[in-house]
Write a structure and sequence with these properties.
It comes from Pseudomonas songnenensis. This is Asparaginase. Belongs to the asparaginase 1 family. Pfam families: Asparaginase (PF00710), Asparaginase_C (PF17763). The structure is a single chain. The protein folds into two domains: about 170 residues, Rossmann fold (3-Layer(aba) Sandwich); about 120 residues, Rossmann fold, CATH 3.40.50. It is elongated and about 65 Å long. Strands 4-1-5-6-7-8 form a six-stranded mixed β-sheet, with helices on both faces. A four-stranded parallel β-sheet has the order 11-12-13-14, with helices on both faces. The protein has a two-stranded antiparallel ribbon with strand order 2-3. The chain is an alpha/beta fold and about 325 residues long. The chain has nine helices and 14 strands. Bound molecules: aspartic acid (ASP). Aspartic acid (ASP) binds next to loops. The site of aspartic acid has 10 residues, from loops.
Length: about 325
């Protein structure tokens, strides 16, 4: 099978890669297509043919919101289904790159076209920048047929879009995949196509000594449809606080999805290890296994946006859809 790319869509959303200096600091800047074409003239080939599209407004990815995930997903899906591209290279700021990669992994679960994200720690053209190596390295990875699904190319490495996090703000190897000991069980059921139908409100609550019922109730009152609890260790929390547990139980009874991941970068949720874990499970929490915060948030968002009810969201959240659940 010839996997080479004939029609690559480069989708530029902003980020350091194309930023220019302003009085207030680095800011996103237009005109990146011309700079890319000039730079490509000196790059060794073969490189795919590409077209360029800017998503407006260009953003520092610190300003990305879930509605931007939906816009990126819609733009990519439209281009792919209209036959305008056979691969997508998404240029994005690094601060929330892992969140967008995770959300797109689920919003585009059914898409055959590979989607590769990249960005840079230093702007293109600045001394010693990683921008051109990341960008043209990503193009070469696509051209070589190395990309399936949603992936991130950074500092010479291909990373899983739903397993990656930004771990450093001061080095070119800023991204890493969550460690995994084994893959999650293969799901025999056909996963749902997650086409966005409605808005979704997902809130993350890291547990910390002092967290209590008041925080849970406030978040539920703010309109959260899903609460992603970042538990301790293997999925524990203050289950000895009867008021806290009751607030969770009530929220669950009102239809709020209660999902758990671990604050530890390595390991996974296993409620049965401690009584402080099984107490949370009994209140209605479901396990996100070894999912990252980015993956769990993007997955809950995509499941809720697709219009699934509480029971269906809980069902699919616990199942591996694209390699995100490995622990
Ligand atoms: N703040 C920038 C952004 O996320 C950082 C970067 O791109 O590296 O857009």
């Amino acid at each position: 099978m010839n996997e080479s790319i004939d029609r690559l869509l480069v989708l530029y959303t902003g980020g350091t890669i194309g930023m220019q200096q302003s009085a207030a600091g680095l800011m996103p800047a237009s005109g990146f297509e011309t700079r890319m074409r000039e730079q490509q003239a000196g790059e060794p080939g073969p490189l795919p043919n590409w077209t360029f599209q800017e998503l407006q407004p260009l953003l520092d990815s610190a300003d990305m919101q879930p509605r931007h995930w939906l816009e990126m997903a819609r733009t990519i899906r439209e281009a792919a289904t209209q036959g305008r591209c056979d691969a997508v290279l998404l240029l994005h700021g690094t601060d929330t790159l892992a969140y967008s990669a995770a959300a797109l992994s689920f919003l585009l679960l059914d898409l055959e076209v590979p989607v590769l994200l990249t960005g840079a720690m230093l702007p293109a053209g600045s001394e010693g920048s990683d921008a051109w190596p990341n960008l043209f390295g990503a193009m070469r990875a696509l051209q070589a047929g190395r990309v399936k699904g949603v992936r991130l190319f950074f500092n010479g490495v291909l990373l899983h879009g739903a397993r990656v996090s930004k771990l450093r703000s001061d080095a070119f190897d800023a991204f890493a995949e969550a460690p995994r000991k084994r893959s999650a069980a293969v799901v025999s059921e056909r996963p749902p196509v997650l086409l966005p139908q409605q808005p979704a409100e997902v809130v993350v609550l890291p547990l910390y000594p002092g967290v209590g019922a008041a925080q849970v109730r406030a978040l539920v009152a703010s309109g959260a449809q899903a609460l992603l609890l970042e538990c301790y260790g293997s999925g524990t929390g203050p289950a000895g606080d009867a008021d806290f547990v009751e607030a969770l139980r009530t929220a669950h009874g009102q239809g709020v999805v209660l999902a758990a991941i671990s604050q530890c970068p390595g390991g996974h949720v296993d409620f049965g290890v401690y009584a402080t874990g099984s107490g949370l499970r009994d209140a209605g929490l479901i396990s996100g296994g070894g999912m990252t915060r980015e993956a769990a948030l993007g997955k809950l968002f995509a499941l809720l946006c697709a219009g699934l009810d509480q029971h269906q969201v809980e069902h699919w959240f616990c199942r591996d859809l694209c390699g995100e659940m490995a622990d």
